[in-house]
Amino acid sequence: MSSPLFWSQPLKYCAWAARERPAYFWSVVVGATGPALMPIVPPIRHMLGDVDPAPVPVTYPGTFGRQLNRALVEENLRYDREREREFSN
Questions:
Q1: pLDDT at residue 63 is higher than 60
Q2: Which residues, including other chains, have CB under 8 Å from residue 13's CB and lie 6 or more apart?
Q3: What is the DSSP string of 50-74?
Q4: H, E, C per residue of 16-45
Q5: d(Cα 82, Cα 79) in Å, to the nearest integer?
Q6: What is the pTM of this model?
Q7: What is the rounded CA–CA span in Å between residue 16 and residue 61?
Q8: What confidence tens digit (pLDDT) does each residue in 38-47 have?
Q9: Is 88 helix (H, G, I), strand (E, B) or coil?
Q10: What is d(CA 72, CA 75) in angstroms, rounded to the nearest whole number?
């Protein structure tokens, strides 16, 4: 028996592929369900009480960032005062 062509008889082809080449057939079926379930699964997760994890920190925790920020603020204030003096004269 020759294999049916997919575009002319898709259901018959799927039945043939499931019987004659099950590994290929089920690989395609499982692979196609992933993208299909992407918009469906997150709302179900949230309804069941699952919460998204906290975002990963992008800075190192500690006082260095605060000290650096304070130094930058002071430097900007100093620069602004100097500019005001230049323009006021």
A1: no
A2: 3, 4, 5, 6
A3: --PPPPPPSS--SSHHHHHHHHHHH
A4: HHHHHCHHHHHHHHHHHHHHHHCCCHHHHH
A5: 5
A6: 0.47
A7: 60
A8: 999 999 999 9
A9: helix
A10: 5
